[in-house]
Amino acid sequence: MASPRRRLSSLLYSVSPLLLSRSSYSYSSLFHALPFCPRLSLSSSSMAPELQEENYTTGPAEPPQKTRVTVVGSGNWGSVAAKLIASNTLRLSSFHDEVRMWVFEETLPSGEKLTDAINRNNENVKYLPGIKLGKNVVADPDLENAVNGANMLVFVTPHQFMEGICRRLVGKVKADVEAISLIKGMEVKMEGPCMISTLISDQLGINCCVLMGANIANEIAVEKFSEATVGYREKKEIAQKWVQLFSTSYFIVTPVQDVEGVELCGTLKNVVAIAAGFVDGLEMGNNTKAAIMRIGLREMKAFSKMLFSSVKDTTFFESCGVADLITTCLGGRNRKVAEAFARSEGKRSFDELEAEMLQGQKLQGVSTAKEVYEVLSHRGWLDFFPLFATVHEICIGTLPPTAIVEHSERTPKM
């Protein structure tokens, strides 16, 4: 005799494929679709006349418009994001299969355009070689064409390019488009710091969520288990749609109602990773590195809450918080280049090391440290954040790499 679970499974799979589409369904709709349900045994003659007439005159309902997704950015993380999304748009009937990916056009050493190489090989041969993105990913070097008709925009470029990208897109996207930022960083203006999600919302007039987490792109590309956090403001149903679009068996996404907290975690952890790299380059050991990470997390939390009182303490225990801090301090590009900087005793610049070590990828930690320092200096908060302040001063050569411990040992005047 079959087990109850096996019987239930057989029953579920006997339901009409029209009712069990690839999109989600409710238990109530499933119940009414079962073979023994009286609703399905109703004949047309038993219907009320007005219902028969309505069905006859209106005909079949128009199918709902499928959601189109465009990824704005095609670096290491942008290519992985496109791979995740493309696998789900094929699986979910509510999404259009094709995923466009805007590519900043480059010419490869072979003379071939990067866009042509991506579309021919189905992989980003420069920034994510050896990984198939999905045959439904289409690289496009024309930004306006790439976003044309898109209902959901995924922004994943170096943060210093975003203001220019947004200016190019003003008037080119509809007001009902939903956006999400995977970008770590912020803009500092005369009036104060501006988060990238806010920049997108203000310039384009659209809602923007954020996705951050312990996400080293190359590990996700080969489908190693990872987590991420979606930060949203008010509409949880929109956050759930992003969760649905990104989630796979190896990439688990959780929604949190705290855009600023999630985004600042993803931004500030790169500054702490620079500090961790200094510790590695100076061979100070794991105890010192753990201390730097703890002090860094404390400053991340204090800075976030001083800027935005709405930031939640619990956000720092999500993947975007402590988990992202740990993985970035252990294996991220910011840590790697900062280690080389410390080994050179600060005699080689970050720009030189970035060009040599990252094959076109960009550091975020150094520029973010500068932006954070500007905020701290303008608001008179430098004494509250000795680690953040010291990282920037080492990066610009005011202090030697050894100062990372000497200065961060000071107790903040909170």
Automatic annotation (TrEMBL):
Domain Glycerol-3-phosphate dehydrogenase NAD-dependent N-terminal: from-to ranges: 69-236
GO biological process, one term: carbohydrate metabolic process
Alphabetically ordered keywords of this record: NAD, Oxidoreductase
Positions with a binding annotation for NAD(+): 73-78, 104, 161, 217, 333, 362, 364
Catalytically driven reaction(s): sn-glycerol 3-phosphate + NAD(+) = dihydroxyacetone phosphate + NADH + H(+)
GO terms assigned for molecular function: glycerol-3-phosphate dehydrogenase (NAD+) activity; NAD binding; protein homodimerization activity
EC number(s) recorded for this UniProt protein: 1.1.1.8
Cellular component terms (Gene Ontology): cytosol
Annotated catalytic residues: 269 (proton acceptor)
Top-level lineage group: Eukaryota
Residue span, Glycerol-3-phosphate dehydrogenase NAD-dependent C-terminal domain: 258-406
Pfam families xref list: NAD_Gly3P_dh_C, NAD_Gly3P_dh_N
UniProt: substrate binding residues: 184, 333-334
InterPro entries: 6-PGluconate_DH-like_C_sf, 6PGD_dom2, G3P_DH_NAD-dep, G3P_DH_NAD-dep_C, G3P_DH_NAD-dep_euk, G3P_DH_NAD-dep_N, NAD(P)-bd_dom_sf
Matching NCBIfam families: glycerol3P_DH
Family per similarity comment: Belongs to the NAD-dependent glycerol-3-phosphate dehydrogenase family.
Protein name: Glycerol-3-phosphate dehydrogenase [NAD(+)]
Native species: Malus domestica (Apple)
